Inverse folding.
């Protein structure tokens, strides 16, 4: 993942932390809380942490997230410097988009705007504090793959953000795949998390009585329900929760491939080069790896794990049978 994408994910998670604080009991965040609970701040020296945090604050303010700084005058954090959202400045008027308008807004941006700010603003997440655009929006690219962001409707996004803001449960239709029938699920939403061009709704599954993630493109018809009963626990890292559940479902894997030099650029961009033309992949999407390795065969050969080797072979055989 590029440094800029890591910055965007951290800034998104920081914005969600402020939303959570405002929705529940904390109302503000201290530097110590941010350092312990928001990813990518841990392990930094005091000076590096403060510099990175101030850079993130400056960026969020530039794109419309109004963060206030003040001194706590009472309670356990008395005397500490703290931060909160200026809620009166963070309200949007009622806006409705047709699906076509939402799609256009998702790709359109003002000419001459800073590209990194444009990526955040064009995505529709800026003032809604949801997730960040993870696309290559360079001027040399005429068409880009927006991933889940490209198919996320304004109606779905608005319902989730509204539920988080007012502390309500939600219900929605969920399909495990495009061919499966929809089932009604109930959740206390905690946040939206971008992960490898996909977006996941994370929260407490009221049907399963445990934290759970749902891919945003598989849910529809969201309605608000009763008051939330399972707020996000202190210290929860939503990014880690998504990755852990994906790994549990064997959707994220580690793998080793042998790739012919100067071939399979897409694969090499996602891996780390080893010796003898081997490339090592960590926490990659399993389905993506199977399809991409098959597409680049024989220049790309999966060495391990064995089940992925077998799936690539099966996919290639199926392709041969279709044209035979």
């Amino acid at each position: 993942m590029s440094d800029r994408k890591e910055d965007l994910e951290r800034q998104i998670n920081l914005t969600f932390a402020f939303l959570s604080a405002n929705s529940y009991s904390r109302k503000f965040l201290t530097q110590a809380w941010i350092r312990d609970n928001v990813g990518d701040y841990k392990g930094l020296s005091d000076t590096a942490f403060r510099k990175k945090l101030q850079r993130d604050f400056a960026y969020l303010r530039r794109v419309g997230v109004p963060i206030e700084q003040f001194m706590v005058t009472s309670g356990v954090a008395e005397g500490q410097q703290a931060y909160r959202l200026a809620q009166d400045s963070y309200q949007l008027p009622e806006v409705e988009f047709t699906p076509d308008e939402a799609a256009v807004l998702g790709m359109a941006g003002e000419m001459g705007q800073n590209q990194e700010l444009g990526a955040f603003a064009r995505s529709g997440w800026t003032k809604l504090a949801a997730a960040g655009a993870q696309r290559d929006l360079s001027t040399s690219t005429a068409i880009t793959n927006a991933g889940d962001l490209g198919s996320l409707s304004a109606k779905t996004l608005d319902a989730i953000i509204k539920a988080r803001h007012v502390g309500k449960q939600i219900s929605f239709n969920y399909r495990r795949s495009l061919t499966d029938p929809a089932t009604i699920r109930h959740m206390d939403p905690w946040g939206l998390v971008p992960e490898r061009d996909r977006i996941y709704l994370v929260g407490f599954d009221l049907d399963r009585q445990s934290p759970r993630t749902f891919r945003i493109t598989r849910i529809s018809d969201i309605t608000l329900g009763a008051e939330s009963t399972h707020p996000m626990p202190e210290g929860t890292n939503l990014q880690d929760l998504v990755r852990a559940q994906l790994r549990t479902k064997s959707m994220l894997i580690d793998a080793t491939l042998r790739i012919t030099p100067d071939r399979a650029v897409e694969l090499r961009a996602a891996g780390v080069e080893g010796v003898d033309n081997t490339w090592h992949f960590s926490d990659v999407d399993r389905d993506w790896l199977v399809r991409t390795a098959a597409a680049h065969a024989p220049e790309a050969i999966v060495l391990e794990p064995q089940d992925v080797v077998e799936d690539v072979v099966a996919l290639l055989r199926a392709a041969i049978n279709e044209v035979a």
The two ends are 39 Å apart (CA to CA).
